[in-house]
Design a protein that fits this description.
- The chain is an alpha/beta fold and 191 residues long.
- Helix content is 27%, strand content 27%.
- Strands 5-4-3-6-1-7-10-9 form an eight-stranded mixed beta sheet.
- A hairpin with a 5-residue loop joins strand 9 and strand 10.
- Helix 1 packs parallel to helix 3.
- The protein is globular, with a radius of gyration of 16 Å.
- The two termini are 21 Å apart.
Length: 191
Amino acid sequence: MRKIIYSMSISLDGYIEGPDQDISWHRVDDELHRYFNETIAELGGFLHGRVVHELMADFWPTADEDPANAGATAEFAPIWRDKPKYVYSRTRDHIDWATAVIHDVVPEEVRALKEQPGGDLGLGGADLAASFAALDLIDEYRVTVHPVLIGRGRRMFPLTDTVTPLRLLGTRSFGSGVVELHYARDTERGD
């Protein structure tokens, strides 16, 4: 069965973006971008919220046609373009570059999607991830911690009283000081 993997970059103090959606503090150098390309290329598709999808669709469909986007950036464009995309939106029925538009997170429908053949599914968007987490639908977390304190902004998850035990699958450090933490739900310690 396919897994749902939520990946997100965060600051050391736990923010995914600063005020006004600022992510200029991300340290995505060539080494990290190539690693992202490798791990994302293995996925069978994307589960995105509308906002994340629109941000991606605004740049990636033709990014490899611009000579300024050489190397890892250009290499990511066909990876993104060629993968199925399931976009969760309550306001839209059709979205460019999406395989399907889904209006609500329904656990039975998500489980049916996981049972389809293909690689694991990458989950993107903090609001969508919060909905998936509340329904215990996330199998793995890949948190890329950037060596910077930004002081305030938006957290990876909203505050909750739910405790979700995790087990470490691995870590990886990069020359830029970025560290990836890879976790899975700990079903032996969970409810």
